[in-house]
Amino acid sequence: MNNEQMDALFRKVFGDVENGDEQLLGSVNGGAINREETILTNLKLELKNLGEVPECQLSSDRLRDAILSKGTMREPVSPFANWWKFAVPVAACAALAVFVLQMPRSQVIDEPDTQGSIATKLEQPSATLENKIEPNDVVVPPVTEQSAKVEIVLPIDQPTIVKKTSPSTVKNSRRPVTKPRPQYASRTTVSDQAGVGAPSPAAMADMVAADLKPKSSPSVAGIAAGALEGFENRDSGSTSRGSAAKPDESSPKVVIVTAGTNPDTRASNATEVDKKNVVFGG
Amino acid sequence: MSSLVASLVLMSQVLAQEPLQTQPLLQPVGAYQSAAWASVVDSLAVLPDIAGNPFGVAVLIDDRGYFVAHTSSLVYEPLTAKMSGGVEVKLGRIGYDKETQLVLLGAHNWVPEKRQPARLAPTVKIGELMVATVRGPVRGMLTSDSRPGLFLPSQRYVPLAEIQFETKDVPVGGAIVFDNSGGLVGILGAVLQPEMPLTSEQRFENAQQQAKNAFGPAGLTVAYALGPTILNRVVEGFKRDDHKVDHPSVGFFFKAGSGPGQVVVDEITPGSPCDLAGVKTGDLIMMANGTPIANVVDLAALLFALEPGSELTMRLYRKGDQIDVKMKVGVKTLWN
User: Fold this and answer.
1) How far apart (Å, rounded) are the C-alpha atoms in residues B220 and B227?
2) Span B105-115, mean pLDDT?
3) Do A34 and A140 share a domain, yes or no?
4) Less crowded by CB within 10 Å, the N or C end of chain B?
5) ipTM of predicted complex
Protein backbone atom coordinates (compact mmCIF):
# COMPACT_ATOMS: atom_id res chain seq x y z
CA MET A 1 0.00 0.00 0.00
CA ASN A 2 1.30 3.38 -0.95
CA ASN A 3 0.73 6.56 0.97
CA GLU A 4 -2.32 7.62 -1.04
CA GLN A 5 -3.96 4.30 -0.49
CA MET A 6 -3.09 4.52 3.24
CA ASP A 7 -4.62 7.99 3.43
CA ALA A 8 -7.74 6.76 1.71
CA LEU A 9 -7.99 3.92 4.21
CA PHE A 10 -7.56 6.42 7.07
CA ARG A 11 -10.38 8.54 5.67
CA LYS A 12 -12.59 5.50 5.32
CA VAL A 13 -12.00 4.28 8.84
CA PHE A 14 -12.47 7.72 10.41
CA GLY A 15 -15.55 8.53 8.33
CA ASP A 16 -14.12 11.10 5.94
CA VAL A 17 -14.45 9.19 2.68
CA GLU A 18 -13.78 11.25 -0.43
CA ASN A 19 -14.47 10.63 -4.10
CA GLY A 20 -11.94 8.29 -5.60
CA ASP A 21 -11.02 6.57 -2.36
CA GLU A 22 -12.97 3.48 -3.37
CA GLN A 23 -10.97 3.21 -6.56
CA LEU A 24 -7.67 3.58 -4.74
CA LEU A 25 -8.57 0.95 -2.19
CA GLY A 26 -10.01 -1.40 -4.83
CA SER A 27 -6.64 -1.89 -6.39
CA VAL A 28 -5.10 -3.09 -3.11
CA ASN A 29 -4.87 -6.71 -2.08
CA GLY A 30 -7.89 -7.64 0.02
CA GLY A 31 -5.87 -9.34 2.80
CA ALA A 32 -3.56 -6.41 3.26
CA ILE A 33 -6.31 -3.83 3.35
CA ASN A 34 -8.34 -5.86 5.83
CA ARG A 35 -5.36 -6.13 8.15
CA GLU A 36 -4.65 -2.41 7.95
CA GLU A 37 -8.30 -1.57 8.35
CA THR A 38 -8.48 -3.70 11.50
CA ILE A 39 -5.43 -1.91 12.93
CA LEU A 40 -6.89 1.50 12.17
CA THR A 41 -10.26 0.55 13.59
CA ASN A 42 -8.61 -0.52 16.82
CA LEU A 43 -6.63 2.73 16.82
CA LYS A 44 -9.84 4.68 16.49
CA LEU A 45 -11.39 2.82 19.42
CA GLU A 46 -8.32 3.42 21.54
CA LEU A 47 -8.39 7.09 20.70
CA LYS A 48 -11.97 7.26 21.82
CA ASN A 49 -11.06 5.61 25.08
CA LEU A 50 -8.32 8.08 25.84
CA GLY A 51 -8.93 10.26 28.87
CA GLU A 52 -9.05 13.98 29.09
CA VAL A 53 -6.04 15.85 27.92
CA PRO A 54 -3.84 16.84 30.84
CA GLU A 55 -3.97 20.49 31.71
CA CYS A 56 -0.31 20.95 30.95
CA GLN A 57 -0.92 19.77 27.42
CA LEU A 58 -3.84 22.04 26.74
CA SER A 59 -3.22 24.71 24.24
CA SER A 60 -5.29 27.81 24.09
CA ASP A 61 -6.63 26.82 20.73
CA ARG A 62 -7.68 23.42 21.88
CA LEU A 63 -9.16 24.89 25.03
CA ARG A 64 -11.09 27.42 22.94
CA ASP A 65 -12.28 24.72 20.64
CA ALA A 66 -13.32 22.57 23.56
CA ILE A 67 -15.26 25.43 25.10
CA LEU A 68 -16.90 26.29 21.83
CA SER A 69 -17.76 22.68 21.16
CA LYS A 70 -19.40 22.32 24.59
CA GLY A 71 -21.41 25.48 24.09
CA THR A 72 -22.69 27.75 26.82
CA MET A 73 -23.48 26.56 30.35
CA ARG A 74 -26.80 24.98 30.92
CA GLU A 75 -29.32 26.94 32.90
CA PRO A 76 -29.52 25.82 36.51
CA VAL A 77 -32.49 23.65 37.16
CA SER A 78 -34.62 24.63 40.10
CA PRO A 79 -34.65 21.99 42.81
CA PHE A 80 -38.41 22.33 42.91
CA ALA A 81 -38.78 21.79 39.22
CA ASN A 82 -39.53 18.16 39.81
CA TRP A 83 -41.46 18.65 42.98
CA TRP A 84 -44.11 16.26 41.86
CA LYS A 85 -41.63 13.45 42.10
CA PHE A 86 -41.44 13.97 45.86
CA ALA A 87 -45.08 14.73 46.46
CA VAL A 88 -46.10 11.16 47.04
CA PRO A 89 -43.34 10.27 49.53
CA VAL A 90 -43.86 13.51 51.43
CA ALA A 91 -47.57 12.96 51.64
CA ALA A 92 -46.99 9.44 52.84
CA CYS A 93 -44.60 10.62 55.55
CA ALA A 94 -47.04 13.31 56.66
CA ALA A 95 -49.86 10.83 56.87
CA LEU A 96 -47.67 8.48 58.89
CA ALA A 97 -46.66 11.30 61.26
CA VAL A 98 -50.28 12.31 61.82
CA PHE A 99 -51.19 8.72 62.46
CA VAL A 100 -48.40 8.29 64.98
CA LEU A 101 -49.19 11.55 66.79
CA GLN A 102 -52.83 10.67 67.11
CA MET A 103 -52.13 7.28 68.55
CA PRO A 104 -52.96 7.04 72.26
CA ARG A 105 -49.93 7.12 74.46
CA SER A 106 -48.75 3.77 75.59
CA GLN A 107 -50.15 2.77 78.90
CA VAL A 108 -48.17 1.61 81.83
CA ILE A 109 -47.52 -2.06 81.66
CA ASP A 110 -47.65 -3.85 84.92
CA GLU A 111 -47.97 -7.51 84.26
CA PRO A 112 -45.60 -9.92 85.89
CA ASP A 113 -44.33 -12.20 83.21
CA THR A 114 -43.44 -15.82 83.46
CA GLN A 115 -39.93 -15.01 84.55
CA GLY A 116 -41.11 -13.18 87.63
CA SER A 117 -40.16 -9.68 86.65
CA ILE A 118 -41.99 -6.44 86.69
CA ALA A 119 -41.73 -4.22 83.69
CA THR A 120 -42.68 -0.65 84.26
CA LYS A 121 -42.52 2.10 81.79
CA LEU A 122 -42.01 5.59 83.12
CA GLU A 123 -43.30 8.35 81.00
CA GLN A 124 -43.63 11.53 82.96
CA PRO A 125 -40.76 13.58 84.28
CA SER A 126 -40.55 14.82 87.82
CA ALA A 127 -42.53 11.99 89.20
CA THR A 128 -41.85 11.24 92.80
CA LEU A 129 -41.80 8.17 94.86
CA GLU A 130 -42.01 9.80 98.21
CA ASN A 131 -45.77 9.63 98.41
CA LYS A 132 -45.68 5.93 97.92
CA ILE A 133 -43.34 5.14 100.74
CA GLU A 134 -44.84 2.69 103.09
CA PRO A 135 -44.13 2.71 106.81
CA ASN A 136 -41.09 1.02 108.30
CA ASP A 137 -38.67 3.22 106.44
CA VAL A 138 -39.43 1.72 103.13
CA VAL A 139 -36.71 2.47 100.69
CA VAL A 140 -37.43 4.33 97.53
CA PRO A 141 -35.06 3.95 94.67
CA PRO A 142 -34.01 7.31 93.27
CA VAL A 143 -35.66 6.72 89.97
CA THR A 144 -37.74 9.78 89.53
CA GLU A 145 -36.56 12.15 86.88
CA GLN A 146 -37.16 10.64 83.56
CA SER A 147 -37.99 12.39 80.37
CA ALA A 148 -37.83 9.34 78.21
CA LYS A 149 -39.24 5.93 78.62
CA VAL A 150 -37.16 3.73 80.80
CA GLU A 151 -37.77 0.15 81.45
CA ILE A 152 -36.70 -1.14 84.81
CA VAL A 153 -36.70 -4.82 85.45
CA LEU A 154 -36.41 -5.93 89.01
CA PRO A 155 -36.29 -9.59 89.86
CA ILE A 156 -38.74 -10.69 92.50
CA ASP A 157 -37.91 -14.21 93.37
CA GLN A 158 -34.22 -13.93 93.16
CA PRO A 159 -32.09 -12.59 96.00
CA THR A 160 -31.13 -9.00 95.68
CA ILE A 161 -27.60 -8.44 94.57
CA VAL A 162 -25.96 -5.15 95.16
CA LYS A 163 -24.55 -4.16 91.86
CA LYS A 164 -21.53 -1.99 91.74
CA THR A 165 -20.50 -0.77 88.40
CA SER A 166 -16.88 -0.84 87.59
CA PRO A 167 -15.14 2.36 88.50
CA SER A 168 -14.57 4.51 85.54
CA THR A 169 -12.90 7.80 85.10
CA VAL A 170 -15.13 10.76 85.64
CA LYS A 171 -14.57 13.00 82.72
CA ASN A 172 -14.42 16.37 84.33
CA SER A 173 -14.44 19.48 82.26
CA ARG A 174 -15.25 21.81 85.06
CA ARG A 175 -13.59 25.08 85.73
CA PRO A 176 -11.18 25.42 88.63
CA VAL A 177 -12.86 25.93 91.93
CA THR A 178 -10.81 29.02 92.55
CA LYS A 179 -12.33 30.69 89.54
CA PRO A 180 -15.21 32.97 90.55
CA ARG A 181 -18.63 31.72 89.73
CA PRO A 182 -20.18 33.60 86.82
CA GLN A 183 -23.01 35.94 87.67
CA TYR A 184 -25.54 34.89 85.11
CA ALA A 185 -28.52 32.65 84.91
CA SER A 186 -28.16 29.07 85.90
CA ARG A 187 -25.77 27.31 83.67
CA THR A 188 -27.04 24.62 81.48
CA THR A 189 -25.63 21.43 82.74
CA VAL A 190 -23.63 19.19 80.50
CA SER A 191 -25.63 16.19 81.45
CA ASP A 192 -23.74 13.92 79.14
CA GLN A 193 -20.66 14.34 81.26
CA ALA A 194 -22.29 14.38 84.62
CA GLY A 195 -22.30 11.19 86.53
CA VAL A 196 -20.25 9.20 84.09
CA GLY A 197 -19.62 5.80 85.51
CA ALA A 198 -22.52 6.14 87.84
CA PRO A 199 -24.63 3.17 88.77
CA SER A 200 -27.77 2.45 86.88
CA PRO A 201 -31.07 3.41 88.48
CA ALA A 202 -31.77 -0.17 89.40
CA ALA A 203 -28.32 -0.53 90.91
CA MET A 204 -28.76 2.66 92.92
CA ALA A 205 -32.12 1.45 94.10
CA ASP A 206 -30.55 -1.80 95.16
CA MET A 207 -27.74 -0.04 96.97
CA VAL A 208 -30.04 2.25 98.86
CA ALA A 209 -32.33 -0.63 99.62
CA ALA A 210 -29.48 -2.78 100.83
CA ASP A 211 -28.31 0.04 103.05
CA LEU A 212 -31.58 0.26 104.90
CA LYS A 213 -32.47 -3.37 104.71
CA PRO A 214 -32.15 -4.12 108.44
CA LYS A 215 -34.80 -1.53 109.20
CA SER A 216 -37.29 -2.65 106.63
CA SER A 217 -39.34 -5.73 107.05
CA PRO A 218 -40.51 -6.35 103.47
CA SER A 219 -38.15 -7.65 100.90
CA VAL A 220 -36.28 -5.21 98.80
CA ALA A 221 -37.94 -6.49 95.70
CA GLY A 222 -41.33 -5.88 97.22
CA ILE A 223 -40.35 -2.41 98.20
CA ALA A 224 -39.11 -1.64 94.77
CA ALA A 225 -42.24 -3.09 93.29
CA GLY A 226 -44.34 -0.92 95.53
CA ALA A 227 -42.31 2.09 94.63
CA LEU A 228 -42.69 1.39 90.99
CA GLU A 229 -46.37 0.91 91.50
CA GLY A 230 -46.39 4.36 92.95
CA PHE A 231 -44.98 5.60 89.71
CA GLU A 232 -47.88 4.15 87.86
CA ASN A 233 -50.44 5.78 90.09
CA ARG A 234 -48.72 9.09 90.41
CA ASP A 235 -51.26 10.83 88.25
CA SER A 236 -54.30 9.13 89.66
CA GLY A 237 -54.76 11.69 92.39
CA SER A 238 -54.90 9.06 95.05
CA THR A 239 -51.64 10.17 96.56
CA SER A 240 -51.68 12.69 99.33
CA ARG A 241 -49.10 15.40 99.41
CA GLY A 242 -47.22 16.04 102.55
CA SER A 243 -46.89 19.23 104.45
CA ALA A 244 -46.56 22.61 102.88
CA ALA A 245 -42.83 22.47 103.38
CA LYS A 246 -42.56 19.82 100.70
CA PRO A 247 -41.51 21.24 97.36
CA ASP A 248 -44.13 21.36 94.70
CA GLU A 249 -43.06 18.65 92.30
CA SER A 250 -46.09 18.80 90.09
CA SER A 251 -43.96 20.63 87.59
CA PRO A 252 -40.41 19.84 86.55
CA LYS A 253 -39.81 23.54 86.22
CA VAL A 254 -37.80 25.67 88.57
CA VAL A 255 -38.53 29.37 88.82
CA ILE A 256 -35.39 31.36 88.19
CA VAL A 257 -35.48 34.82 89.73
CA THR A 258 -32.95 37.08 88.15
CA ALA A 259 -31.29 40.02 89.77
CA GLY A 260 -32.37 43.51 88.83
CA THR A 261 -35.77 45.05 88.37
CA ASN A 262 -38.07 45.19 85.38
CA PRO A 263 -39.20 48.81 85.03
CA ASP A 264 -42.66 47.76 83.86
CA THR A 265 -43.50 45.45 86.72
CA ARG A 266 -41.06 46.92 89.23
CA ALA A 267 -40.13 43.37 90.07
CA SER A 268 -37.45 40.96 89.11
CA ASN A 269 -38.02 38.81 86.10
CA ALA A 270 -38.90 35.19 86.69
CA THR A 271 -38.54 32.46 84.15
CA GLU A 272 -39.26 28.77 84.32
CA VAL A 273 -36.42 26.40 83.60
CA ASP A 274 -36.31 22.64 83.63
CA LYS A 275 -34.77 21.53 86.88
CA LYS A 276 -32.36 19.30 85.02
CA ASN A 277 -30.71 22.41 83.66
CA VAL A 278 -30.25 24.18 86.95
CA VAL A 279 -27.30 24.26 89.29
CA PHE A 280 -28.33 24.67 92.90
CA GLY A 281 -26.20 26.16 95.59
CA GLY A 282 -26.30 24.75 99.03
CA MET B 1 -45.13 72.85 63.71
CA SER B 2 -42.58 70.73 65.53
CA SER B 3 -43.03 72.76 68.69
CA LEU B 4 -46.77 72.17 68.50
CA VAL B 5 -46.24 68.45 68.22
CA ALA B 6 -43.79 68.47 71.11
CA SER B 7 -46.20 70.39 73.28
CA LEU B 8 -48.97 67.96 72.44
CA VAL B 9 -46.75 65.04 73.37
CA LEU B 10 -45.82 66.65 76.66
CA MET B 11 -49.44 67.40 77.38
CA SER B 12 -50.45 63.83 76.70
CA GLN B 13 -47.76 62.59 79.05
CA VAL B 14 -48.90 64.93 81.77
CA LEU B 15 -52.47 63.82 81.34
CA ALA B 16 -51.39 60.21 81.42
CA GLN B 17 -49.60 60.72 84.73
CA GLU B 18 -52.32 62.73 86.32
CA PRO B 19 -54.54 59.83 87.46
CA LEU B 20 -51.60 58.25 89.29
CA GLN B 21 -50.81 61.44 91.13
CA THR B 22 -54.35 62.22 92.05
CA GLN B 23 -55.00 58.66 93.21
CA PRO B 24 -55.23 58.55 96.99
CA LEU B 25 -52.48 56.59 98.64
CA LEU B 26 -53.15 53.05 99.72
CA GLN B 27 -56.82 53.04 98.99
CA PRO B 28 -58.48 49.78 98.03
CA VAL B 29 -58.43 49.17 94.31
CA GLY B 30 -61.90 48.32 93.18
CA ALA B 31 -64.38 46.93 95.62
CA TYR B 32 -61.86 45.29 97.91
CA GLN B 33 -62.84 46.26 101.42
CA SER B 34 -62.21 44.12 104.39
CA ALA B 35 -61.25 44.22 107.99
CA ALA B 36 -57.95 42.61 107.07
CA TRP B 37 -56.93 45.62 105.09
CA ALA B 38 -57.95 47.96 107.85
CA SER B 39 -55.79 46.01 110.27
CA VAL B 40 -52.63 46.21 108.18
CA VAL B 41 -52.81 49.57 106.50
CA ASP B 42 -51.27 51.35 109.47
CA SER B 43 -48.14 49.20 109.21
CA LEU B 44 -47.47 50.09 105.59
CA ALA B 45 -45.31 52.87 104.26
CA VAL B 46 -45.32 54.15 100.70
CA LEU B 47 -41.86 54.69 99.29
CA PRO B 48 -41.52 57.47 96.71
CA ASP B 49 -39.39 57.73 93.64
CA ILE B 50 -37.16 60.70 92.89
CA ALA B 51 -40.10 62.77 91.65
CA GLY B 52 -42.05 62.04 94.81
CA ASN B 53 -44.54 59.71 93.18
CA PRO B 54 -45.50 56.51 94.98
CA PHE B 55 -43.19 53.74 93.88
CA GLY B 56 -42.91 50.97 96.46
CA VAL B 57 -44.23 49.63 99.72
CA ALA B 58 -42.52 48.75 102.98
CA VAL B 59 -44.02 47.02 105.96
CA LEU B 60 -43.33 47.60 109.64
CA ILE B 61 -42.01 44.45 111.27
CA ASP B 62 -40.78 45.73 114.60
CA ASP B 63 -41.83 48.45 116.97
CA ARG B 64 -38.31 49.83 116.94
CA GLY B 65 -39.11 51.33 113.56
CA TYR B 66 -37.87 48.49 111.38
CA PHE B 67 -39.43 48.25 107.96
CA VAL B 68 -38.86 45.54 105.38
CA ALA B 69 -39.14 46.11 101.66
CA HIS B 70 -38.02 44.44 98.51
CA THR B 71 -35.04 46.08 96.91
CA SER B 72 -37.12 46.74 93.80
CA SER B 73 -39.23 49.15 95.83
CA LEU B 74 -36.31 51.43 96.51
CA VAL B 75 -35.18 54.07 94.06
CA TYR B 76 -32.98 55.99 96.41
CA GLU B 77 -32.23 56.24 100.07
CA PRO B 78 -32.57 57.63 102.62
CA LEU B 79 -36.08 58.71 101.78
CA THR B 80 -39.22 60.09 103.27
CA ALA B 81 -42.05 57.60 103.21
CA LYS B 82 -45.67 58.24 103.80
CA MET B 83 -47.88 56.21 106.08
CA SER B 84 -51.57 56.24 106.68
CA GLY B 85 -52.98 59.48 108.03
CA GLY B 86 -50.41 61.48 106.09
CA VAL B 87 -47.64 60.69 108.55
CA GLU B 88 -44.18 61.04 107.08
CA VAL B 89 -41.27 58.97 108.27
CA LYS B 90 -37.64 59.13 107.24
CA LEU B 91 -36.19 55.73 106.40
CA GLY B 92 -32.63 54.61 105.82
CA ARG B 93 -31.12 51.23 105.04
CA ILE B 94 -29.68 49.40 107.99
CA GLY B 95 -29.66 45.85 106.66
CA TYR B 96 -29.72 43.89 103.43
CA ASP B 97 -30.12 40.22 102.69
CA LYS B 98 -28.44 39.50 99.39
CA GLU B 99 -29.97 36.06 99.07
CA THR B 100 -33.56 37.28 99.08
CA GLN B 101 -33.01 40.88 98.00
CA LEU B 102 -34.90 42.16 101.01
CA VAL B 103 -33.91 45.43 102.62
CA LEU B 104 -34.23 46.45 106.24
CA LEU B 105 -35.09 50.11 106.63
CA GLY B 106 -34.82 51.92 109.91
CA ALA B 107 -36.96 54.93 110.83
CA HIS B 108 -35.39 58.03 112.25
CA ASN B 109 -36.93 59.44 115.39
CA TRP B 110 -39.38 56.59 115.57
CA VAL B 111 -41.92 56.80 118.34
CA PRO B 112 -42.70 53.30 119.65
CA GLU B 113 -46.15 51.94 120.41
CA LYS B 114 -47.84 54.21 117.95
CA ARG B 115 -48.33 51.68 115.21
CA GLN B 116 -48.80 47.96 115.29
CA PRO B 117 -46.15 45.96 113.41
CA ALA B 118 -47.36 43.41 110.91
CA ARG B 119 -47.97 39.94 112.29
CA LEU B 120 -45.99 37.20 110.58
CA ALA B 121 -48.18 34.27 109.62
CA PRO B 122 -46.44 30.91 110.17
CA THR B 123 -47.96 29.30 107.12
CA VAL B 124 -50.06 30.24 104.14
CA LYS B 125 -53.03 28.45 102.70
CA ILE B 126 -53.99 28.00 99.10
CA GLY B 127 -56.66 30.48 98.22
CA GLU B 128 -57.38 34.17 98.19
CA LEU B 129 -54.83 36.65 99.40
CA MET B 130 -54.57 40.36 99.82
CA VAL B 131 -51.71 42.00 97.96
CA ALA B 132 -50.79 45.47 99.15
CA THR B 133 -49.44 47.31 96.16
CA VAL B 134 -48.32 50.90 95.90
CA ARG B 135 -51.81 51.79 94.75
CA GLY B 136 -53.64 49.83 97.41
CA PRO B 137 -54.82 46.29 97.99
CA VAL B 138 -55.75 43.96 95.20
CA ARG B 139 -56.99 40.44 95.34
CA GLY B 140 -54.62 37.63 94.59
CA MET B 141 -54.94 33.89 94.40
CA LEU B 142 -52.28 31.68 95.89
CA THR B 143 -51.91 28.74 93.56
CA SER B 144 -48.85 27.14 95.08
CA ASP B 145 -47.02 27.68 98.33
CA SER B 146 -43.84 25.84 97.44
CA ARG B 147 -42.75 26.41 93.89
CA PRO B 148 -39.07 25.59 93.66
CA GLY B 149 -37.29 28.86 93.12
CA LEU B 150 -33.72 29.80 92.50
CA PHE B 151 -32.36 33.23 93.23
CA LEU B 152 -29.57 34.62 91.15
CA PRO B 153 -26.74 35.25 91.45
CA SER B 154 -26.54 33.24 94.65
CA GLN B 155 -28.23 30.23 92.99
CA ARG B 156 -29.88 29.51 96.29
CA TYR B 157 -33.03 27.45 96.43
CA VAL B 158 -35.98 29.25 97.94
CA PRO B 159 -39.55 27.92 98.05
CA LEU B 160 -41.75 30.53 96.43
CA ALA B 161 -45.40 31.30 96.75
CA GLU B 162 -47.02 31.55 93.34
CA ILE B 163 -49.70 34.19 93.23
CA GLN B 164 -51.96 35.01 90.34
CA PHE B 165 -54.04 38.14 90.10
CA GLU B 166 -55.36 40.52 87.52
CA THR B 167 -53.63 43.84 87.45
CA LYS B 168 -53.74 46.01 84.43
CA ASP B 169 -52.20 49.16 85.73
CA VAL B 170 -50.88 48.41 89.16
CA PRO B 171 -47.20 47.56 89.46
CA VAL B 172 -46.86 44.59 91.73
CA GLY B 173 -43.13 44.58 92.31
CA GLY B 174 -42.30 44.68 95.98
CA ALA B 175 -45.93 44.38 97.00
CA ILE B 176 -46.66 43.03 100.46
CA VAL B 177 -48.78 39.90 100.66
CA PHE B 178 -51.20 39.31 103.49
CA ASP B 179 -53.69 36.60 104.15
CA ASN B 180 -57.28 37.47 104.76
CA SER B 181 -56.70 37.59 108.48
CA GLY B 182 -54.08 40.28 108.11
CA GLY B 183 -51.06 38.03 108.62
CA LEU B 184 -47.93 38.86 106.66
CA VAL B 185 -47.22 35.89 104.40
CA GLY B 186 -44.82 37.18 101.77
CA ILE B 187 -43.25 39.91 99.73
CA LEU B 188 -43.56 39.87 95.98
CA GLY B 189 -40.21 39.76 94.30
CA ALA B 190 -40.63 38.55 90.76
CA VAL B 191 -43.11 38.39 87.93
CA LEU B 192 -43.21 35.60 85.43
CA GLN B 193 -42.26 36.76 81.99
CA PRO B 194 -44.37 35.46 79.12
CA GLU B 195 -42.79 33.62 76.30
CA MET B 196 -42.15 35.96 73.46
CA PRO B 197 -43.28 35.15 69.91
CA LEU B 198 -40.79 33.96 67.40
CA THR B 199 -40.74 36.66 64.79
CA SER B 200 -38.97 39.87 65.56
CA GLU B 201 -41.84 42.07 64.42
CA GLN B 202 -44.33 40.29 66.61
CA ARG B 203 -41.84 40.34 69.41
CA PHE B 204 -41.58 44.10 69.24
CA GLU B 205 -45.28 44.75 68.96
CA ASN B 206 -46.36 42.29 71.60
CA ALA B 207 -43.65 43.35 73.98
CA GLN B 208 -44.93 46.88 73.86
CA GLN B 209 -48.51 45.77 74.30
CA GLN B 210 -47.73 43.45 77.16
CA ALA B 211 -45.71 46.09 78.87
CA LYS B 212 -48.78 48.27 78.85
CA ASN B 213 -51.22 45.62 79.93
CA ALA B 214 -50.00 42.87 82.16
CA PHE B 215 -47.65 39.99 82.42
CA GLY B 216 -48.35 36.35 82.54
CA PRO B 217 -50.49 34.06 80.46
CA ALA B 218 -53.77 35.42 79.12
CA GLY B 219 -53.32 38.74 80.84
CA LEU B 220 -53.12 37.15 84.24
CA THR B 221 -50.15 38.26 86.25
CA VAL B 222 -48.20 35.38 87.72
CA ALA B 223 -45.96 36.62 90.47
CA TYR B 224 -43.72 34.93 92.97
CA ALA B 225 -43.35 35.94 96.56
CA LEU B 226 -40.98 34.94 99.27
CA GLY B 227 -43.11 32.68 101.37
CA PRO B 228 -43.59 32.75 105.13
CA THR B 229 -40.83 30.23 105.79
CA ILE B 230 -38.03 32.26 104.28
CA LEU B 231 -39.66 35.52 105.34
CA ASN B 232 -39.67 34.44 108.98
CA ARG B 233 -35.99 33.58 108.72
CA VAL B 234 -35.14 36.94 107.19
CA VAL B 235 -37.22 38.93 109.65
CA GLU B 236 -35.70 37.12 112.60
CA GLY B 237 -32.26 37.93 111.26
CA PHE B 238 -33.14 41.55 110.66
CA LYS B 239 -34.38 41.91 114.20
CA ARG B 240 -31.00 40.89 115.57
CA ASP B 241 -28.57 43.55 116.65
CA ASP B 242 -26.29 42.92 113.68
CA HIS B 243 -29.24 42.68 111.28
CA LYS B 244 -27.66 39.64 109.62
CA VAL B 245 -29.59 36.73 108.19
CA ASP B 246 -28.02 33.32 108.56
CA HIS B 247 -28.85 31.12 105.62
CA PRO B 248 -27.68 27.55 106.09
CA SER B 249 -24.99 26.43 103.72
CA VAL B 250 -22.45 23.67 103.41
CA GLY B 251 -20.63 25.19 100.46
CA PHE B 252 -21.26 23.19 97.34
CA PHE B 253 -23.20 23.31 94.10
CA PHE B 254 -25.05 20.40 92.64
CA LYS B 255 -27.10 19.54 89.60
CA ALA B 256 -28.97 16.69 88.00
CA GLY B 257 -26.78 13.90 86.69
CA SER B 258 -27.06 12.11 83.41
CA GLY B 259 -29.01 9.22 84.85
CA PRO B 260 -32.53 9.34 86.22
CA GLY B 261 -32.66 10.55 89.75
CA GLN B 262 -28.98 11.25 89.95
CA VAL B 263 -27.70 14.30 91.79
CA VAL B 264 -24.07 15.10 91.13
CA VAL B 265 -21.78 17.52 92.90
CA ASP B 266 -20.86 20.29 90.49
CA GLU B 267 -18.50 22.42 92.51
CA ILE B 268 -17.05 22.69 95.98
CA THR B 269 -16.38 25.98 97.68
CA PRO B 270 -12.86 25.91 99.12
CA GLY B 271 -12.83 25.92 102.89
CA SER B 272 -16.51 25.08 103.19
CA PRO B 273 -17.86 22.22 105.33
CA CYS B 274 -18.23 20.10 102.19
CA ASP B 275 -14.63 20.73 101.29
CA LEU B 276 -13.43 19.87 104.76
CA ALA B 277 -15.57 16.74 104.85
CA GLY B 278 -14.00 15.40 101.67
CA VAL B 279 -16.81 15.83 99.18
CA LYS B 280 -15.43 15.86 95.67
CA THR B 281 -16.67 17.24 92.42
CA GLY B 282 -18.45 14.52 90.47
CA ASP B 283 -19.67 12.62 93.51
CA LEU B 284 -23.20 11.33 93.33
CA ILE B 285 -25.34 12.16 96.33
CA MET B 286 -27.45 9.18 97.27
CA MET B 287 -28.72 10.07 100.72
CA ALA B 288 -28.76 13.08 103.01
CA ASN B 289 -29.54 12.80 106.69
CA GLY B 290 -30.89 9.31 106.04
CA THR B 291 -33.28 10.41 103.34
CA PRO B 292 -32.84 9.01 99.83
CA ILE B 293 -32.30 11.80 97.35
CA ALA B 294 -34.58 11.41 94.38
CA ASN B 295 -33.80 14.62 92.53
CA VAL B 296 -32.10 17.97 92.82
CA VAL B 297 -35.14 19.70 94.25
CA ASP B 298 -35.35 17.17 97.07
CA LEU B 299 -31.79 17.87 98.09
CA ALA B 300 -32.22 21.62 97.73
CA ALA B 301 -35.32 21.58 99.91
CA LEU B 302 -33.56 19.46 102.50
CA LEU B 303 -30.61 21.83 102.63
CA PHE B 304 -32.91 24.82 102.82
CA ALA B 305 -34.62 23.42 105.89
CA LEU B 306 -31.39 22.88 107.79
CA GLU B 307 -30.43 25.10 110.66
CA PRO B 308 -26.94 26.57 110.92
CA GLY B 309 -24.98 24.57 113.45
CA SER B 310 -26.86 21.35 112.83
CA GLU B 311 -25.24 18.22 111.47
CA LEU B 312 -25.55 16.93 107.94
CA THR B 313 -24.63 13.44 106.84
CA MET B 314 -24.48 12.45 103.21
CA ARG B 315 -23.91 9.15 101.47
CA LEU B 316 -21.91 9.60 98.31
CA TYR B 317 -21.15 7.33 95.39
CA ARG B 318 -17.67 7.74 94.00
CA LYS B 319 -16.06 5.44 91.47
CA GLY B 320 -17.86 2.34 92.62
CA ASP B 321 -17.62 3.02 96.32
CA GLN B 322 -20.12 4.38 98.78
CA ILE B 323 -18.73 7.01 101.09
CA ASP B 324 -20.35 8.52 104.16
CA VAL B 325 -19.43 12.06 105.06
CA LYS B 326 -20.47 14.17 108.00
CA MET B 327 -20.30 17.91 108.34
CA LYS B 328 -21.62 20.77 110.38
CA VAL B 329 -23.96 23.15 108.62
CA GLY B 330 -22.58 26.63 108.54
CA VAL B 331 -23.40 30.03 107.22
CA LYS B 332 -22.53 30.97 103.70
CA THR B 333 -20.95 34.29 104.59
CA LEU B 334 -18.25 32.54 106.55
CA TRP B 335 -16.47 31.13 103.51
CA ASN B 336 -17.83 33.06 100.57
Assistant:
1) 20
2) 89
3) no
4) N
5) 0.75
